[in-house]
Amino acid sequence: MAFNNNNLDTLYRQVIMDHYKNPRNRGSLEDETLTIDMNNPTCGDRIHLTLKVEDGIVTDAKFDGEGCSISMSSASMMTQAIKGQPIDNAMKLSTIFSDMMQGKEYDEDIDLGDIEALQGVSKFPARIKCATLAWKAMEKGLNNEQK
User: How far apart are CA 138 and CA 63, in angstroms?
Assistant: First the structure.
């Protein structure tokens, strides 16, 4: 069966809703973790992100918070994507995600997995901050870790 845009949009919506209803890595880490709290005052989304970094590798990531389906599913996808990644790779993924949200060209050779489902958000400028909240929190935490 050939995929048209409607089928792809439906598939992407299903992936987003799956992450929203069944979030991966929801919760909080204890002991020697980076803790970042951020919110989006425009819509009320908020995130509490905890990251464990050992020898320059993000060994674990969990999030908690509340917000819309885009915000929470993006946090779920982001924590999945960065676990086990060197800090540089996690930051590169964040840059690619930011470019995707702004409708810019990005390296399509990199497998974004479920994250690709969020590319349609770029058509809705008011929702971009929802999608990028968790990523901004991760960047803030890892930038502080590198200092």
Answer: 10
Contacts of 109 (CB under 8 A, 6+ apart): none
Number of neighbours of residue 33 by Cβ within 10 angstroms: 18
Question: Which CATH number fits the domain 5-146, given the four candidates 3.40.50.970, 3.40.50.300, 3.90.1010.10, 3.80.10.10?
Answer: 3.90.1010.10
Structure tokens at 140: 């803030």
Q: Does the predicted TM-score (pTM) go above 0.90?
A: yes
Please report how many Cα atoms fall inside a 13 Å half-sphere around the Cα of residue 35, on the Cβ side: 9
Q: Which helix (H) or strand (E) holds 85?
A: strand 85-86
In this predicted model, what pLDDT tens digit does every residue of 67-87 receive, in sequence order?
Answer: 999 999 999 999 999 999 999
Q: Which residues pair with 86 in a beta bridge?
A: 57
Q: How many residues does the chain have?
A: 147
Contact between 45 and 65 under an 8 Å Cβ cutoff? The reply is yes
Q: How far apart are CA 122 and CA 109, in angstroms?
A: 20
At 116 the pLDDT is 92
